C-alpha cells in the first residue's frame, strides 16, 4: 500500500508469467500488423486476434470485459481508443489504425498496442504516429525504482508539447497482473516528483494517446468508441513494463524488433 493506492508487487515467478503473457500479446499484435492492408475490415482483425490468441493457448482479455463485444480494440484515424471492430469499417489507403491486444495466459495479462499506417499516408498522419511512439518511449525512459508516477506523465506531456501535439487526459495506463486493469492509474500528463513511488516488481502499462489537435474527447453512442472532439488524428503506442531495481523490463517487445519497438531519439519535423 502506497498512500491510498493499492499496488501489487510481483515476485520472480509472477514476473515470468507476466513475461509469457506479454510475449503472447506482442506476437499476436505482430501477426495482425503484417496482414493489414487496404480493404481489410476491422471485423477481420478481430477474427485474427481470436484465432491467433487461441493458437498460443491464451484468451483475449478484452472480450466481454465490462460488456465489451470484441476481442480487440481497433481505433482508426480520429478514434482515440476503444474502437469496436465492425464489418462496416474498411481500411483505406492513407488510414492510420491502432490495434490494442491484451492476452490472458497462465492467469496473467499482457497488454500492448501499436498504430499502423495503411499504405501511403499523409505527412500529418505519419507525424502523429511517430510523435505517439516518441511520447511512449519518453514515458518509459524515466521509469526506475524510487521514481514517481508523476514523472511518467510529465515526460510524456513535455515530449508532446515539444512536438506540437497534445495528450488525451481522460484515459491513461494502469497496473496489470492477475487482472487486466488494476491500480495504479498511470496518467499521461503530470508533474514530476508527484504520485506514488514506483517499486521494483510493479507492473504497469504506458500507453499515451497523442493528438494533432485538441486533447478533448467524446464517447460515441455505442458507449465505447472514443473520438477527438475536433476530428483531428490520434495515435497510440503501448507497452506493458515491470519496474526493476535497475530500471524496467518491457514485457511486450515485438518478436522481431518490429516497427513499433522503442526507437532511438530522433527529431521530428512536420512538413
Overview of the structural elements:
By secondary structure, the chain is of the alpha+beta class. The protein is built from 4 helices and 15 strands. The chain has helices spanning 12-35, 42-55, 123-141, 149-162; strands at 59-60, 73-76, 79-81, 96-105, 108-117, 166-167, 173-175, 182-186, 203-206, 209-211, 217-219, 226-228, 234-236, 239-243, 248-250. Strands 1, 2, 4 and 5 form a 4-stranded antiparallel sheet that branches. A 3-stranded antiparallel sheet has the order 3-12-11, with no helix packed on it. The longest helix has 24 residues, at 12-35. It is globular and about 45 Å long. 50% of the residues are buried. The model is unreliable at 259-271 (pLDDT under 50).
Shape: globular
Fraction in helix: 25-40%
| Order of helix and strand elements from N to C terminus | HHEEEEEHHEEEEEEEEEE
Overall mean pLDDT: 93
| Rg, Cα atoms, Å | 17 Å
Describe this protein with a few key phrases.
271 residues; alpha+beta; four-stranded antiparallel β-sheet; three-stranded antiparallel β-sheet; globular
Amino acid at each position: 500500500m502506497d498512500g491510498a493506492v493499492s499496488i501489487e508487487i510481483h515476485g520472480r515467478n509472477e514476473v515470468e508469467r507476466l513475461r509469457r503473457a506479454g510475449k503472447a500479446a506482442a506476437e499476436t499484435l505482430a501477426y495482425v500488423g503484417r496482414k493489414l492492408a487496404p480493404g481489410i475490415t476491422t471485423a477481420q482483425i478481430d477474427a485474427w486476434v481470436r484465432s491467433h490468441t487461441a493458437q498460443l493457448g491464451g484468451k483475449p482479455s478484452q472480450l466481454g470485459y465490462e460488456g465489451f463485444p470484441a476481442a480487440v480494440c481497433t481505433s482508426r484515424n480520429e478514434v482515440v481508443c476503444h474502437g469496436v471492430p465492425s464489418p462496416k469499417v474498411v481500411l483505406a489507403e492513407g488510414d492510420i489504425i491502432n490495434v490494442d491486444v491484451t492476452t490472458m495466459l497462465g492467469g496473467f495479462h499482457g497488454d500492448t498496442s501499436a498504430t499502423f499506417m495503411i499504405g501511403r499516408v499523409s505527412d500529418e498522419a505519419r507525424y502523429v504516429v511517430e510523435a505517439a511512439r516518441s511520447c511512449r518511449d519518453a514515458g518509459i525512459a524515466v521509469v526506475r525504482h524510487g521514481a514517481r508516477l508523476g514523472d511518467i506523465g510529465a515526460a510524456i506531456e513535455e515530449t508532446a508539447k515539444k512536438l506540437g501535439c497534445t495528450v488525451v487526459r481522460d484515459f491513461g495506463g494502469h497496473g496489470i497482473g492477475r487482472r487486466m486493469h488494476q491500480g495504479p492509474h498511470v496518467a499521461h500528463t503530470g508533474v514530476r516528483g508527484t504520485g506514488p513511488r514506483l517499486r521494483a516488481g510493479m507492473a504497469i502499462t504506458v500507453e499515451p494517446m497523442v493528438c494533432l489537435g485538441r486533447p478533448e474527447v467524446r464517447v460515441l453512442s455505442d458507449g465505447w468508441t472514443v473520438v477527438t472532439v475536433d476530428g483531428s488524428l490520434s495515435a497510440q503506442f503501448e507497452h506493458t513494463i515491470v519496474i526493476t531495481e535497475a530500471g524496467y523490463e518491457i514485457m511486450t517487445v515485438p518478436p522481431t524488433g518490429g516497427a513499433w519497438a522503442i526507437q532511438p531519439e530522433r527529431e521530428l519535423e512536420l512538413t
